[in-house]
Design goal:
The protein has 568 residues and is mostly helical. It is 67% helix and 0% strand. Its EC number is 2.7.1.174.
Length: 568
């Protein structure tokens, strides 16, 4: 294309030169040649100076144009060479881009297949777990019906002898009332007979009875006059014992009293000893077993601690929280029904406490069992709060409460009591510090030692060492960044919406709370929830809910403060 343009330009220049030459010839004077001059007309014409200069100018312009044409030709060749190199580079880039797109497409297809396979596997597991849970629910429901029927049958069977026993008790009460009336009449007759009795006769009466204080065993209040006579006779010199006359009234009464195991007419006066009083509050005779069970509540504390290990196992095995809540609700129905029956049926109460009295406090025997409140607190915490926070709150209830109670009993006398009003009565500084230490240790073992990461759910963790803060930051979609997802889900770390997760990737990151502050704060919250006065609210329902709320609020406040600082 460039060569054709150059040839056309040369032809145009040549045409212009020819046209200019013709113009010069036309302007030249036309002289007619004479015959004498025809011979010399064939000689070359002589050019004047003006024509020579014009020709030089034309030649100079021609050379200049030829130089320009040569320069343009070189420039054209350079541009053609550069164009070829550019086309080659573009072709290579296109091939590299095509290869890269092929690799990305293959990788995307592999990731897509892998993710789809994982989703299929999880769906299969969920379907399997759902089927197992439904089978368990049906079996538990059937078992509950069987247990209710058995309880009704056993209650009816147990109440039948109880009704007969009540009839026997009424008959015995009537007989005892008649015996009491007869004994009172006989005692009145004995008092009248003793008024005319000599000192020797009275001494015989006293020796016939082992101890006059034995009358108190029968609930009989001796008259003041008779007590005065007895005290007088006690100061009199001893006489030979004589048997009471069976014909008089006093003798019949004494023979009736002689049937008591306290009676022995062969004992002498100096050998008479009063019956020792029974002190029901005396703990010196209590066995070690009773001391461990009722004083230190060892079985109850062991049961508390075991539930904490069960929570760790279920979290580590990644058991679905909805399955756990449904199972706990079924257990709650059974326990609440049994407790309601216990509070309204003395027979079932005796049967119930014969098996589970070592796990109950004396104060719980007249009110709702603590297990009922425990199940309510655990289910509420698991439903409304993130799973890692709820799990830690249940472990705090299982371990901090026994630790505070044990150390408070051991060292509470050596430390001052906590101030009243805010804290409950009988709460010592020793128990508070023990709960603080155990709560911090629980937080370290759960989040710091990797248990939380090993059992992490799809919803994510509320806190992780060296990670980003979640609550109180822009990662939470609601206006206050609380993570509230409604009553159906409560507070959650991440949303199940895939678009929301993608948007979180572009939002600013806030550093999480430092580990030492997190562990210390967990211990402080555990100690405070264990020691606070909550108006008589049971600890089993107050500790998990209040601990979960305060820990969530602390994480939310940290996110809010750090977001404000980073914005400034």
């Amino acid at each position: 294309m460039a060569k054709d343009s150059n040839a056309a330009q040369r032809r145009s220049n040549k045409a212009r030169q020819q046209a200019k030459g013709k113009k010069l010839q036309a302007n030249a004077p036309k002289n007619e040649l004479k015959p004498s001059e025809l011979e010399t007309s064939t000689a070359p014409p002589k050019l004047d100076k003006q024509d020579t200069s014009a020709q030089l100018v034309l030649e100079q312009r021609l050379h200049t144009q030829e130089d320009q044409i040569a320069a343009l030709r070189q420039k054209n060749e350079a541009l053609e060479k550069e164009l070829k190199e550019t086309q080659q580079t573009l072709q290579e880039s296109h091939r590299a881009f095509a290869d890269q797109m092929v690799g990305i497409s293959a990788s995307f297809d592999q990731d897509k297949e892998r993710v789809c396979e994982q989703v299929r596997t999880e769906l299969d597991q969920v379907r399997a777990e759902l089927g197992v849970s439904q089978d368990k629910e049906r079996s538990l429901t059937q078992r509950l019906h069987e247990l209710e029927n058995k309880i009704q049958t056993d209650t009816s069977a147990a109440l039948s002898p109880f009704t007969a026993l009540k009839d026997i008790q009424a008959q015995l009460h009537q007989a005892f009332q008649a015996l009491t009336d007869e004994f009172t009449r006989a005692l009145t007759q004995m008092e009248q007979a003793l008024k005319d009795t000599t000192p020797d006769r009275m001494e015989s009466v006293l020796r016939s009875v082992r101890d006059y204080q034995a009358l108190d065993l029968y609930g009989v209040n001796l008259p003041a006059t008779l007590m005065g006579d007895i005290n007088t006779l006690k100061q009199a010199p001893p006489a030979m014992p004589q048997r009471s006359n069976s014909r008089d009234t006093g003798g019949a009464v004494l023979r009736a009293l002689a049937r008591s195991p306290h009676y022995n007419e062969n004992l002498h006066r100096e050998d008479l000893k009063p019956v020792p009083a029974l002190d029901l509050n005396d703990k010196t005779g209590r066995s070690m077993y009773a001391n461990l069970v009722y004083e230190w509540e060892v079985p109850r504390k062991l049961f508390h601690c075991i539930t904490g290990f069960v929570v760790l196992y279920l979290y580590k095995m990644n058991v679905n929280v909805e399955v756990i809540i449904r199972t706990l609700f079924n257990i709650f129905l059974v326990v609440a029904s049994a407790d309601l029956l216990r509070l309204n049926s003395p027979t079932f109460e005796h049967f119930f406490e014969s098996f589970l009295s070592i796990l109950m406090r004396e104060s719980e025997k007249e009110r709702v069992n603590g297990v009922v409140w425990y199940l309510v607190g655990v289910m509420t915490s698991l439903h409304f709060f993130p799973e890692d926070i709820a799990s830690v709150s249940i472990i705090v209830l299982s371990w901090c409460d026994p630790a505070a109670s044990t150390f408070g009993r051991m060292f509470g006398k050596c430390t001052p009591a906590l101030p009243g009003g805010i804290f409950a009565r009988r709460k010592s500084l020793a128990g508070f510090l023990a709960a603080w230490a155990v709560g911090s240790l629980i937080a370290y073992l759960f989040w710091g030692a990797g248990i939380a990461k090993a059992g992490e759910r799809a919803s994510g963790l509320s806190w992780e060492p060296g990670s980003n803060a979640m609550f109180g930051t822009a990662l939470m979609p609601d206006a206050l960044h609380t993570g509230w997802r409604g009553f159906a889900r409560g507070f959650a770390v991440t949303d199940s919406n895939f678009a929301e997760r993608l948007r979180n990737l572009t939002r600013p990151r806030i550093p999480a709370m430092p580990p030492i502050l997190m562990f210390t704060l967990c211990g402080l919250i555990a100690a405070m929830t264990e020691a606070l006065e909550l108006g008589g609210l049971d600890d089993n329902v107050a500790i998990p809910i209040l601990f979960s709320f305060l820990l969530w609020f602390s994480l939310w406040a940290w996110g809010q403060i750090m977001s404000s600082v980073s914005f400034l």
